[in-house]
Amino acid sequence: MTTTQRPPEEQQLPFNVFAKACPSRGTLEHVTGRWGALTLGALYEGTLRFNELRRRVDGVSEKMLSQTLHALERDGLVHREAQPTNPPRVDYELTPLGREVAERLLSLIHCVEGSMETVLRSRERYDATRGAR
Fold first, then answer.
1. Could you tell me which residue ranges the HTH hxlR-type domain spans (predicted)?
2. What structural domains and CATH numbers belong to the chain?
């Protein structure tokens, strides 16, 4: 069995996201935050320009998308390509690591989307018995 196939408790990894000072914790936040996950998922479909990406990730502000892209680029998940044109053209695409992470995120996203009827019924039951908060 390879390292990636072992259960998490058996893996001997050099980083531990559960440790307060571990640098992997910041990357996990960038990847699993609302805008990070949606940005990676959108870029999985292919290379996009900033405004195309902003339209695809409905609801994200220009500032938040810019911050998200900077963080994902710094972590090596997104590649930014600036073209020397007038006006400037900037394309964003996933790196190989970004594609791997996005694939896993998309599996989670599809699981959530496919379970929404169950989730909504559960919310209704919860709200009916405990009241909406």
1. 22-120
2. 22-130 (1.10.10.10)
What tens digit of pLDDT does each residue of 78-109 get? 999 998 888 889 999 999 999 999 999 999 99
**4 DSSP assignment:** G
- Tell me which residue of 105, 116, 110 sits closest to 32, measured CA to CA: 105
Q: Is 99 exposed, middle or buried (0-12, 13-18, 19+ CB in 10 A)?
A: middle
Residue pair 30/68 in contact (Cβ under 8 Å)? The answer is yes
Question: DSSP letter string over 25-83?
Answer: HHHHHHHHSHHHHHHHHHHHT--EEHHHHHHHSTT--HHHHHHHHHHHHHTTSEEEEEE
Chain centre distance of CA 24? 14
Q: Which amino acid is at 71?
A: A
Q: Which two tokens mark 5?
A: 């196939």
Terminal CA-CA length for the chain: 47
